[in-house]
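@channel sequence for tomorrow's demo:
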Amino acid sequence: MESMNSTIAWMTDPLIALYQRLAALAPNLVGCPGAALSWLRDGQTRRGLVRRLLARLGVDRLAESSGLAALPAMGFERPLSALVGTRCLCSSCWPSPFPPPMPWG
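structure tokens (generated this afternoon):
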């Protein structure tokens, strides 16, 4: 009987340890997507605030007066304040939510 109990303990102890580790990890797995969505929302909010602040400060007029008015000729259709925080700056990729393909791949 003693050998049976030790065999059962030998088989179940690792499973119990695994369960305890997963139970300790579960709150982190639940909170991680929430934190990621919160960071994404905060980043989008900050990007919008910075864009509005730059537009209000007159960065677009400064860009035009300093010679950056050639941006449309280079493929940029938006004002300079709208280009802040974008992943891809060219006008052909702007409507797409995906980054442009890498030149080597």
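heads up for whoever presents: Helices lie at 2-57, 59-65, 80-83.
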